[in-house]
Amino acid sequence: MSDPAAPVDPVALTSALVKCPSVTPEEGGALALLEVLLSSAGFRCTRIDRNGTPNLYARFGEQGPCLGFNGHTDVVPTGDPARWARPPFSGEIAEGMVWGRGACDMKSGVAAFAAAAVDAARQGVRGSLALMITGDEEGPSTDGTVAILEWMERQGEKVDHCLVGEPTSRESFGDMVKIGRRGAITATITAAGRQGHSAYPHKALNPLPPLASLAAKLAAHELDQGSEHFQPTTLALVAIETGNPAANVIPGEARAVVNIRFNDLHSGASLTRWLEREAAEAEAAAGGVKISVATRLTGESFLTPPGELSDLISGAIQAETGKTPELSTSGGTSDARFVKAHCPVAEFGLTGLTMHQTDECAPVAEIERLKAVYARIIRDYFA
Fold first, then answer.
1. Catalytic residue (choose from 137, 283, 335, 360)
2. DSSP class per residue in 270-312
3. 138 catalytic, yes or no?
4. What is the C-alpha separation between 381 and 379, in angstroms, rounded?
5. Which residue out of 27, 74, 300, 335 is catalytically annotated?
6. Of 277, 233, 279, the residue nearest 256 (C-alpha)
7. Which of 92, 96, 191, 281 is exposed most, by the fewest CB atoms within 10 A?
8. Averaged in consecutive runs of 10 residues, what is the pLDDT profile of the chain (383 residues)?
9. Do the beta carbons of residue 341 and residue 81 sit within 8 Å?
10. Is the whole-model pTM more than 0.85?
């Protein structure tokens, strides 16, 4: 029988979590497994499931300060299992790796911070620890961390600083900490004309030429040259669609889709206004084709300025790896975009070389070092 007071093995915990088939929005047993572990160490655990999305909030201690960790146990679909060298949910530990979907993104991160938190709780901490674990990060992200934070607000649960365990290291473990993220907005531009026979184009009103011209103009436009902590904003044309299978028909409607990843020089509202102005100008020159824009904002850009939190994390990384991490805002979005409204937040985790890939895996040595970094962060935070 294992010693309940022994340090929690983050590699074994990662393997156990990977064995849980928690493809969004399925819980797969992952949160139940964590709840048992955390409850046994004295954490007050609350399930905050909403609209079929599983969520877990676990807190140790009731007085401040409170250090929080955030992560997710849901994973993306595996694709064809026959293309995997090992079963996607095997959790096998071999060749110095833990294998399976979610091993990298991000069950290893959850395992590492849960293991470090349990050890710290058993040893006693002078403040509080709070773990926010969701099953909705890879999905719509509407009923996961958002639901936990809304519940916390109602219950008066306060976290002073939070660390998200997403894989942030770029080339080698410890080389990057995320102190912010770019915003993301997707715009669907619809051009409506009049369908007709391609042999008689003068009897139709073709929406494609003005739409294509507008799409090309947007794709070539330089929105900015970057800011102090952010790379330049990017706009990618990702689709032009007509739904027209016939070569002898001019379509009556066409759509283009662009995705913008923006820095702190813009907001979702300012970019929407810019797109609407560009569409209005294109429509004025389109000879009767109507052009409209519909936008979907995934998240605003945000920054936790370098300082107390980033110094804490960087110091722990330096102590455990000898590296000085880059403070970055690169990459896509994460649930940190929600946490930032509650408290200062930063992100640090494994190298993300295999996330979402076939034969996803995470190095055993990195998982062990990640727990060591988190454990040192906890010790230093309450020192």
1. 137
2. HHHHHHHHHHHHHHHTTTT-EEEEEEEEEE--EE--SSHHHHH
3. no
4. 6
5. 74
6. 279
7. 96
8. 78 98 96 98 98 97 96 97 97 98 98 98 95 95 97 98 97 97 97 98 97 98 97 97 95 98 97 98 97 96 97 98 96 93 97 96 98 98 95
9. no
10. yes
